[in-house]
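Dear U.,

Please find below the material for section 3 of the report. The protein was modelled together with zinc ion; I have listed the sequence and SMILES used, followed by the predicted complex structure.
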Amino acid sequence: MNDDTFTAALSTMKQQWCGAGRTADCIETADLHDCLDETTIPPAFAEHLRDCGHCRIQLERLRSRQWLWRTALNNNPDAALARAFGEEGMRRLEKMESGGFVSKIVDSLINFATPLWQPEYAGEAVTAADLVEQHNRYESSDGEYVEMSCQWQDEEECLLTLQWQANLEQQSRLWARFVSPNGETILSEVLLGTELAGNLQLTGEELQFHPARRQWALSIIVEDMIEKPR
Ligand SMILES: [Zn+2]
């Protein structure tokens, strides 16, 4: 829902509930946030919402903003946060995030992440003969595993090939997260998808760093799937 369709819906609602206005019993905006999730609305608020067109409109307005925000955050988190924080806020945020990169992965959905793996020669200038395909395997205590292998070139047009194979109990979304070797700075995050095995060729533009010219390490993140948009 964009701003225009929201305004149209709002005016229809106002016409249908003509005369609906704020009363002394109305729910404060701060409390309306407790009503965003339909399933956990406090009973007293639920009762008021049934009878009050004004509060229902306010709630829909909040839900619409929340949806727009989540969509923007999902599509391009850096741009969404830049708009929300403004220039000065963004400068402070970049200092806190040290690389200025905001993760696309929702923390609460992470099922597990493989330990950081730093392939040999990552970020080093070496001869092509040394840059062979390398493998790493992570196995959890309950038999789930993620295998990955990668190979790259030290050329202007850098290309990194990533292969993975996993055995996971439930359907998940897999991400490759490239970070600095100490794990403090996220360099990029690439969505691998839901297939348990696959391979992907990544360009320098997708990686946002050159694998032969900057130190890096890799972790595969296994994210739970959810139905509703984030
Ligand atoms: Zn009300």
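For the text of the report, you could mention the following: The longest strand covers residues 159-167.

Regards,
Y.
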